[in-house]
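Re: that chain you flagged

S.,

Sorry for the slow reply, it's been a week of failed gels. I finally had a moment to sit down with the sequence you sent. For the record, here it is as I used it:
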Amino acid sequence: METTAQGGGMIFWLLMMAFAFIVIFMPARSQKKREQELMAKVNALQKGDQVIIPGGIIGTVAGFKDNAIEVKIAESVKLTVLKTAIVGLVNDLQPAAKEGGAK
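Prediction finished late last night. Pasting the structure tokens below so you have them in one place:
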């Protein structure tokens, strides 16, 4: 009878390890996919597109450099930020805002 109890305990631990793997690694995979999608959008930016940079600052793309984008945030204020610093696109937020207003 002890072997049956031990075998059941082994299955329990295998199930627990599988569950822990899913809980820990699946969100990381999902986040990586979102980051890749954002970088694809950043690489496809054009002049005049609106972007969000850290701190929630919204600006308009004014130009491009090697690994950086020139963002105009006011009439005579331009910032040069790395492409990796872009946290979002304003166009991505607009449909979400419309859905939230419909509730």
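What I noticed first: The first strand starts at residue 50 and ends at 53.

Talk soon,
D.
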